Amino acid sequence: MVIGNHLVQHKELSLLAIGLGCHLQSLPTGAGADIKTLTARFPEGSTRIAAALRELEAHGYLRRERHRTTTGRIVSRTVSCNQPHPAARREPANTGGCPDRRPTPRSSTASTAPPRRPRPAEQPSAPPEQAPPLHPYRITPDGVGTRTRPAPHPRKALPSVPQPSCTAPALLQQATDLLITLRRRDPRLLLSSPDTAHLAPGVAAWLERDVAPSAVRHALTTDLPDDPLRRPAALLAHRLTAQLPPPPPFKAAPAGPPPPRYDVRNCDGCDRGFRAPKTEDRCRDCRAAAAAA
């Protein structure tokens, strides 16, 4: 059997439709050509095979006829056309347009049904819609086709967290270490590097408010939901914001000048170091012993 270049080199048919058309023309008479049989034969699913069959039918390479058997059952026959006429392009499958076809239809049903008589008042149905290409291709300047993939869905942003007034590296590192150890309490709290960097300022805001690391860890890991945590970082961000404690009480500076600070000297009595004005040469204990004597 010879397959024409008009099918193999077709400019509007997809690669799957061209391959399926060549496969149908190579089948013997009476072989199965329905979607169920083709799905069992090839790894492609029923949706892709159905779309390829609609492409072949729209371009005149395929025709489907419905016949009523002697028992009253309606069966469908798939007719593969070797050289469809240009006028049959994009015509429905039940209106003809296939001048050169195989003498015996190919179908998965029995081929003993009598031919259907055409109805004089039968109106042609609307042509089937062209299925969109399942695997779009992009042609590069060097003529090589590459398969394009749809853009991934954007990742939903995490809620904002409190920001500390002090951004010392040591404080942020302590907050990062605390977030890393949360997975020891609950394996579901395994955070990625971007999520950890986003949550670290919120933990630092807690730490600078005189909250112990154990208290922060307890607030973030207590009463977690039993359901699977789809976004653990979002839950932690919500808790850092909603349960943020108030700042510590303000401590006023003492009034008056600061007390004097003396240098360290050695006691002349016991040779022990002490702080005192230069007028004193003995420590407090030696002065008290001398006064008692």
Regarding quaternary structure, how should these chains be classified? Answer: single chain
Ends: how far apart? 133 Å
Q: In percent, how helical is the residue content?
A: 25-40%
Overall pLDDT, averaged? 77
Shape: rod-shaped
CATH class of the largest domain: Mainly Alpha
**How many domains, in number, for the residues?**
3
Q: Mind summarizing the main beta sheet?
A: 3 strands, antiparallel
Rg for CA atoms: 43 Å
Order of helices and strands: HHHHEEEEEHHHHHEEH
CATH architecture title of the largest domain: Orthogonal Bundle
Determine the structural class based on helices, strands and strand pairing. Answer: alpha+beta
**Strand percentage, roughly?**
5-15%
Number of helices: 10
Total count of strands: 7
Uncertain regions spanning at least 5 consecutive residues? 90-115, 120-124
- In order across it, which strands form the biggest sheet? 1-2-3
CATH topology of the largest domain: Arc Repressor Mutant, subunit A
Describe the structure.
By secondary structure, the protein is an alpha+beta fold. It folds into 3 domains: 5-138, Arc Repressor Mutant, subunit A; 169-242, no CATH class; 264-293. It contains 10 helices and 7 strands. It has helices at 5-8, 15-26, 35-41, 46-58, 169-180, 182-185, 193-207, 213-221, 232-242, 284-292, and strands at residues 62-68, 74-83, 100-101, 137-139, 145-147, 264-266, 273-275. The strands form 3 sheets. Strands 1-2-3 form a 3-stranded antiparallel sheet. A two-stranded antiparallel sheet has the order 4-5. Strands 6-7 form a two-stranded antiparallel ribbon. The longest helix has 15 residues, at 193-207. It is rod-shaped, with a radius of gyration of 43 Å.
